[in-house]
Task: inverse folding
């Protein structure tokens, strides 16, 4: 048995031992249309990914299997945990990002791949291509990376501009736009309020952003009264 076959066989053994039918049913309800879920909890997947990342992670990613939701998730987690800079990881990211087909894999990968912290300018430039993709989860990947790592004084204006110029109308893109705007307001209310008063978001996304802001416990009640008036009918 070749080394890559051994790795994939080991992964399948680990996943088979950890799967939970009840959790599989729970996740299937959260991810409609995703029918290859085994039912393994995220902390368990993170533990396996950390083990893989300590080894020859490039070899693993080159030959990783996409047979299940969990195997695809593992690849994203390994990309986050592995030691390496953007130059080293970029070809693997470019191969991996098109595989993302649900919000869970997208958001968990974004929370783990922290190249934005290490190389903010270079990774920002890398994200631009995906921000203008015609594929729902590629755009969401770029947006969630932005809301996870770029909502700060240096990048706030760039984030708001990027959100405003997304052209793809798809549910999980719109929800990510709204989520990002809500975090911008939560962290920088004075700078974000003018954007809420005048933007190019469609009505659904605009109203969803305001809804998410109003649901935040960190936003004062008097501000919520003003925000309520900015909702579109």
Result:
């Amino acid at each position: 048995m070749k080394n890559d076959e051994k790795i994939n066989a080991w992964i399948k053994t680990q996943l088979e031992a950890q799967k939970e039918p009840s959790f599989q049913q729970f996740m299937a309800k959260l991810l409609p249309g995703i029918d290859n879920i085994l039912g393994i909890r995220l902390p368990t997947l993170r533990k396996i990914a950390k083990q893989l990342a300590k080894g020859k992670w490039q070899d693993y990613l080159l030959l990783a299997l996409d047979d299940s939701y969990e195997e695809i998730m593992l690849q994203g987690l390994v990309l986050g945990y592995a030691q390496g800079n953007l130059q080293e990881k970029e070809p693997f990211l470019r191969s991996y990002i098109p595989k993302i087909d649900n919000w869970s894999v997208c958001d968990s990968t974004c929370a783990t791949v922290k190249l934005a912290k290490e190389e903010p300018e270079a990774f920002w430039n890398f994200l631009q291509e995906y921000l203008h993709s015609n594929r729902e989860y590629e755009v969401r990947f770029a947006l969630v990376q932005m809301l996870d790592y770029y909502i700060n004084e240096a990048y706030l204006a760039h984030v708001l501009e990027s959100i405003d110029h997304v052209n793809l109308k798809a549910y999980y893109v719109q929800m990510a736009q709204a989520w990002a705007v809500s975090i911008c307001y939560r962290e920088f209310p004075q700078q974000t309020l003018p954007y809420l008063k005048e933007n190019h978001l469609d009505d659904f996304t605009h109203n969803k952003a305001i809804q998410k802001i109003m649901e935040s416990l960190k936003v004062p009640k008097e501000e919520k009264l003003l925000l309520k008036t900015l909702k579109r009918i």
